[in-house]
Specification:
heterodimer, A: 84 residues, mainly alpha, 86% helix, 0% strand, flat, B: 247 residues
Chain lengths: 84, 247
């Protein structure tokens, strides 16, 4: 197993760990940050699988703008009920 | 019990993912795609309208599409009409957010942010903006293109919104930029229809593969897409943040 494969397996394991912690965490804000981390790890995975175009898009949208969208919606919903 | 099942499902999916990623380098190879002779091979070799011979980076003149990045040659040339549809979808989404956010209550007082945060955000803002512009102007040479570049521009504005409580942009100028970019995109398509007989035809000379001014209409279209996507997503961010649209 070369170092490249080791990197791929490490990124895959990180993806799963982040995804599980996004699902099971008690606070919604932690879930959102973990989702953003999933996006970042997915971007690395795409770059390793030689899809740099998708990796750039995933890094910008998956871990940047999606996070903002969720945080903004939670802030708005948090005024009605105490979710955060 | 539910958590145990969820964990088992996640572990199973993870094993599949790891096996898939480690095996994928053996399953798919570039050479196989080339020798199969399907549509993908023709897109990669740039001979959809007949054989062109070998494409050499930095030497070949007037190749079909003329874009060094083959993903861009599909997105902005062979399947440019699809991209026009995608841009329209994004425009409709942005319109919906503006309409919905117009009825929302304006946010209350925001927390004052510190000096260090404000200054560093202002320091980082031009770097992010320039990276976004670089990504969409070099979309036909390097990875990326109009959509990631435009999103990066929007996220640089998002950074200022998050870091500076007094910051607000003039939304109307973004709306004007968005409209003009969309209009020019369809105008270029219509020019292709007039000149060559089909919509969004690449009617300009394509130049040398790998130089900045190559690819015919591809760089122009990608700059327009980048401006359009950037102003649309900045509009979404701003109307989600302020809760009110100032036109």
């Amino acid at each position: 197993m070369s170092w490249f494969n080791v990197l791929e397996v490490a990124v895959s394991i990180l993806l799963i760990v982040f995804a599980i912690s996004a699902v099971v965490s008690k606070k919604l804000l932690t879930s959102i940050v973990m989702l953003s981390a999933v996006g970042m790890a997915a971007a690395v995975a795409f770059a390793l699988l030689s899809a740099p175009d998708v990796a750039v898009t995933e890094a910008v949208i998956g871990s940047g703008l999606i996070t903002f969208l969720f945080v903004a919606s939670i802030r708005r919903a948090g005024k009605a009920g105490d979710v955060l | 019990m539910k958590k145990i099942f969820a964990g088992l499902a996640a572990v199973a999916f993870g094993v599949l993912l790891i096996l898939g990623i480690s095996a994928s380098t053996d399953i798919f190879r570039y050479e196989d795609a080339l020798t199969e002779g399907g549509a993908a091979a023709r897109y990669i070799a740039k001979d959809v309208n007949g054989s062109n011979g070998e494409i050499v980076f930095g030497e070949t003149n007037d190749a079909e599409t003329g874009s060094a990045n083959m993903v861009t040659s599909v997105i902005a040339n062979y399947r440019s009409f699809d991209t026009l549809g995608e841009v329209t979808v994004l425009f409709l989404a942005s319109l919906g957010v503006s309409l919905l956010a117009g009825t929302m209550v304006k946010n209350g007082k925001r927390k004052k942010s510190g000096f260090v945060l404000k200054t560093s955000a202002r320091f980082l803002f031009p770097v992010m903006l320039l990276t976004g512009i670089y990504i969409f102007t070099h979309g036909h040479l390097t990875p990326g293109g109009g959509f990631p570049g435009g999103s990066m521009i929007a996220s640089s504005f998002l950074l200022l919104y998050l870091a500076d409580e007094g910051f607000s942009t003039r939304i109307s100028s973004f709306k004007i930029a968005e409209g003009i970019a969309g209009l020019l995109y369809t105008a270029i398509g219509a020019t292709g229809l007039l000149v060559g007989g089909y919509f969004l035809m690449n009617f300009l000379p394509t130049g040398t593969v790998g130089s900045l001014l190559s690819g015919g209409i591809i760089p122009i279209v990608y700059v327009l897409i980048g401006l359009k996507v950037g102003s649309e997503i900045t509009g979404i961010v701003s109307s989600m943040y302020n809760g009110e649209v100032k036109v």
